[in-house]
Design brief:
The protein has about 300 residues and is an alpha/beta fold. The chain has one domain: Aldolase class I (TIM Barrel, Alpha-Beta Barrel), CATH 3.20.20.70. The chain contains 13 helices and 8 strands.
Length: about 300
Amino acid sequence: MTHFTGIYPALVTPMSADGARIDLAGLRALVRFHLSRHVSGFFVTGGSGEGILMTADERRAVLETVMAETAGRDVRIISHVGAHVTAAARELAAHAESVGVHAIAAVPPFYFRTDAQGLRDHYRVIGDGAPHTPLFVYNIPGNTGVEVTASVVADLLAVPTVRGIKYSSYNLYDLYNITRLREDLTVLNGFDEVLVAGLTMRAHGGIGSTYNIMPAAFVALYRAYRMGDLPGAQAWQWRINTVIKALLGQPFFATLKAVLTHWGVPCGAPRQPNRAMSAEETARAVQAVLASGVEALEQDALKALETLPVAA
């Protein structure tokens, strides 16, 4: 398997104004928006996509919509199939393989903790549901309470389909150690604010939530780094981090969706327990993000991408 490289937005899922209904038309518009920014692919129904808060039918519909909208395009789709119940994750994995995704991903069991054997069994069952599709472990200990370290990944390589990890942790030394476990293992950085650092520690690319409103900037960062222009990549990272700081001062998912809606890509509200914002809050949040320079950042990145060569 070749490595998954480049920039993969962790797609938010457009919903109705009350978060009760999936907006598939809005999802198609969001995918087209990102394709125009030269992303490498999409991470679908992950945490940013609120997949854990959806029914299985909704998750299937979202994935099928993304697959249809990207048909014939040179992008890779990674479907997050993680669920509280291992059997449910296996069913989602089987569906994902049936529609032709390029990889699946799953968080480890959370709330009910398990030992090493239980963790291997969890991923083996998911992998059995999609035996011809690479499986990525999703490490996000701040949400799951489970730290997938290099030693844990080494143990999980006993599962035949495990081929990578989405690594959302600040322990970049451990990220580096994971990259050394096996040469065909893909490691994707998951914390947007340290993408440059992750790349220098041998990550092959990144998956991120803030990519939703800065896709071109992250693509420019990635291309600059791959060209050997570390100062240029750092300069993109620093501008990106100004926007991230503004985002973190607001209700996060609601603000991502509000900014996209402001730009003409309707995304509605998040689903409970993620909190929606009032009209006044929305206006303040959008203004705070716009004041961070996000629009100029994206325009500068789009211009830069006209001359930055496509990176492997």
